[in-house]
Amino acid sequence: MFSYIASDFDRILQLTVQHLWLAGSALVISAVIALPIGLVIEREKRVTAAALGFLGTLYTIPSIVLIILFIPLFGLSSWSVIAALVIYTQVILVRNLIAGLRSIDLSLIEISNGLGMTPWQRWWRVQLPLALPLMIAGVRLAATAAIAIATIGAKFGAGGLGSLLFEGIAQAGRYDKILAGAVTVGILTLVVNWLLLSLERRLQVPKE
Amino acid sequence: MVFLGPSGCGKTTLLKMVNRLVEPTSGSVLLHGEDIRKKDPIHLRRQIGYVIQQTGLFPHLTVAQNIAIVPELQGRPKDWIEERVSYLCELVGLPEREYLLRYPAQLSGGQAQRVGVARALAGDPEILLMDEPFGALDAITRSRLQDVLLGLENRLKKTILFVTHDVEEALRLADRIAVIQAGKIVQYGAPEEVLLKPADDFVRNLVGGDDLVRQYRVALLQSRREKRNTHKE
Fold first, then answer.
1. What are the DSSP E strand ranges found in chain B?
2. Number of CB pairs < 8 Å for A and B?
3. In Å, how far are A178, B3, B136, B195 from B133, measured between CA atoms?
4. Which value, to the nearest 10 degrees, does the dihedral of the CA atoms of residues B185, B191, B196, B197 take?
5. What is the pLDDT of residues B81-122, one digit of tens each?
6. Interface ipTM
7. Does pLDDT of A155 surpass 90?
8. DSSP secondary structure, B169-219, as one string
9. Most CB contacts within 10 A, which of A76, A96, A193, B16?
């Protein structure tokens, strides 16, 4: 495995960047969509339950099927994979955004109004900073899932570290390639998880 | 001025009508003779101090940042705010500078509510609304904070509207008491008046006017208050 990594280092690096780009762009798009959805459905308890139920159902669709569903739209390209990842991570992001907003003590919302904040000031100065740690926790979970699922993307012409896995399977006996791909994906997941976890801890509300 | 009554009688609702967190279904609230419904609620609230029982301190902001909120919303200059924050901390009895950088979770209940009072005063409001501010504190801390409040009232000449269900607290703090029952003011007057000449059985039971010790203490407080007022003049 190590000799393979050494011999093909440039390619592995390139695939890693590609992999990160797949997961990263999916996350950014997903977050941009999740924010307004979360804010809109949060107001009404019944709407929240229905919307989360719907997004949860999408989550149960196997990722490979979800990617295939997008192929008529985007063809065999990274966009089909990204679209599937956006759908897949949506429920995680929305659920954590809502959990973050709900975790805020109602008396803080009332005092924000009572002190004369506009709704926008209340959002920016109180709700966002207090909900942020849980929101980042959602991003962290979604990132881990996205990195894992993006591996399948190689089957659909999206590249990424999955390429090594599928090549290794196709070329009999290339366990070194399979291992190199799997280990790199693992390390990538751990690093991203650790980075977001430390961000989450830094944003935590101070206690004691 | 104290609103006194059992829980659920509408005293908090009455208070919230003053800063328009609750809109009256009928009638109107006048401030300096002007209907507050004609004013912009955001602007109005920035001119009225507000303290609630749960303190409502923002846990992600330091003591200094919490106190600075209203003047920041008012758009006051930075050095004005800084000066105001340290002045208020001293006023409410938290003079040490180290408190300014603490977070609410690092304060005791009494300290937190001192900060709550300081924050309410930060915008230099003419009116202060206090909704059972000392209700969650132990007896000793509560009595200390009542002293702080009496001192404040003396020095700052603010109109304070204070909600409580605690009769002792009402008798101790009030210049005037409005006793509220089921959404109606059943008696309005000076503490000793409410105590000695209760308007009906409800008020008599609530304030326990037959209690001689209490009568004596209120008389004592009253004479002190009069002395203080003649001093002022």
1. 2-4, 30-31, 34-35, 48-52, 127-131, 159-164, 177-181, 184-189
2. 61
3. 65, 13, 8, 23
4. -30
5. 999 999 999 889 888 788 899 999 999 999 999 999 999 999
6. 0.84
7. no
8. HHHHH-SSEEEEETTEEEEEE-HHHHHHS-SSHHHHHHHTTT-HHHHHHHH
9. A96
Nearest-neighbour CA in chain B from A208: distance (Å): 5
Structural tokens at position B215 = 């009568």
Collect all residues with Cβ–Cβ distance below 8 Å to A83 and sequence separation of at least 6.
A70, A73, A74
Q: Answer for the pair B3, B11: CB distance below 8 angstroms, yes or no.
A: yes
Q: Dump pLDDT digits (tens) for B159-179.
A: 999 999 988 899 889 889 999
Tokens in use for A102? Answer: 């709900």
Residue of A nearest to B72 (CA): A117
pLDDT, residue B210, reads 67
- The pLDDT of residue B233 is 45
Chain A residues 82-121 with a CB less than 8 Å from chain B: 105, 107-108, 110-111, 113-118, 121
Strand partners, B31: B34
Q: Does A56 touch chain B (CB under 8 A)?
A: no
